[in-house]
From TrEMBL:
InterPro entries referenced in this protein's UniProt entry, alphabetically: KH_dom-like_a/b (IPR015946), OHR (IPR019953), OsmC/Ohr_fam (IPR003718), OsmC/Ohrsf (IPR036102)
Record-stated family: Belongs to the OsmC/Ohr family.
The organism's taxonomic lineage, starting at the top: Bacteria, Bacillati, Actinomycetota, Actinomycetes, Kitasatosporales
Pfam family, one: OsmC
Name of the protein: Organic hydroperoxide resistance protein
Signal peptide limits: none
Amino acid sequence: MTEDTAVDTRPTKIMYVAEATAHGGRDGFVTSQDGQIQLRVAMPPELGGDGNGTNPEQLFAAGYSSCFHNALILVGNRAGYDLTGSTVAAKVGIGPNRHRGYGLAVALSVSLPVLDPEVAARLVDAAHEVCPYSNATRGNIDVTILLG
């Protein structure tokens, strides 16, 4: 898809704004302006840290999995399916890229135990089009979706 024919996924109206502040980068803490988040962040041992706190990749995995799951429930409900018992797990990997920086890769594992595989795949594809995290990452990072 060329830039001229790319689907514009930007919001037409902002309905909610989340605010968070980092103090000390990857070895500090993060807070949200409403006080719901007050977390210590630390580099994981694999990246040379002590691992005594959460990290941005875990927070991203939590956000993406919950957002994708909500999109899945939404498209499932619209299609007349009850997705009670479904889950979405996210793995977020980080590593060096070819441009002297770092990049991310995501694997989403979707469980839809009560649906036949064809219907489940159709709903997962639809959720991937609806989910704001999927729209934000599309074309920027590798996202693999595993249906099991």
